[in-house]
Amino acid sequence: SQELEQSPQSLIVQEGKNLTINCTSSKTLYGLYWYKQKYGEGLIFLMMLQKGGEEKSHEKITAKLDEKKQQSSLHITASQPSHAGIYLCGADGNDYKLSFGAGTTVTVRA
Amino acid sequence: GAVVSQHPSRVICKSGTSVKIECRSLDFQATTMFWYRQFPKQSLMLMATSNEGSKATYEQGVEKDKFLINHASLTLSTLTVTSAHPEDSSFYICSAGVVSEQYFGPGTRLTVT
Q: Which chain B residues are within 8 Å of A34, Cβ to Cβ?
């Protein structure tokens, strides 16, 4: 099965500062998905990346896919309290199933 | 976007009893639904893939006789935890759709006492 390692496990950032979360796969990535989860709730889809070098942005969140490195990064610019939560990366291992990383807990301090 | 609901959102049951969790796609038909389990501060672990009209496909290590899955219609899949034990206490999340377009339910917190 595909294993995804996320780093850091958690981070605390001052409001207005930037942050980056990394997701590294043990196998080839056929699709990389970023989700946000609030504790005890479901997952909210953020972005999907499929091609090497692909970069997508939505509001202040940018995600990139480095296919060669089997890695993706999620970058939040000028963080706000609304960005707090658990960020999960998920990968499609070309077997019609998603594998997930352990998640990165983001805390934004005012 | 598409909406997936789960019921109940929280359930407490006694050890040895069975609990049924429902997963519904509210505004679309889902031939495939997925059931995940999530422990505190851990990742979502896929338990099984539920296929409408056929048997569910279970992941390695998941007891199919303990976690009964029924996908009787294109909008409903149910997960029944049979003879629940405290170690079954967890957060169960379902999703519907295909890998590239998967919609997640809000989850069900199961506590077995």
A: none
**Among B99, B81, B93, CA closest to B32:** B99
* B chain contacts of residue A96, beta-carbon cutoff 8 Å: 49, 98-99
Is A54's Cβ below 8 Å from some Cβ in B? no
pLDDT at A66 over 80: yes
User: For residue range B61-88, what is the model confidence (pLDDT) as tens digits?
Assistant: 999 999 999 998 999 999 999 999 999 9
Of the candidates B43, B100, B103, which has its C-beta nearest A48's C-beta? Answer: B100
Helix/strand/coil for B105: coil
A–B CB contacts, 8 A cutoff, strictly below: 53
- Whole-number Å distance between alpha carbons of A30 and A14: 34
| DSSP annotation of A22 | E
What is the C-alpha to C-alpha distance for residues A6 and B26, in angstroms, rounded to an integer?
Answer: 32
- Cβ(B96)–Cβ(B1) below 8 Å: no
Torsions phi, psi of B52, nearest 5? -60, 125
- Gap between the Cα atoms of A55 and A98, Å rounded: 20
**Closest-CA residue to B71 (of B56, B92, B57, B60):** B56
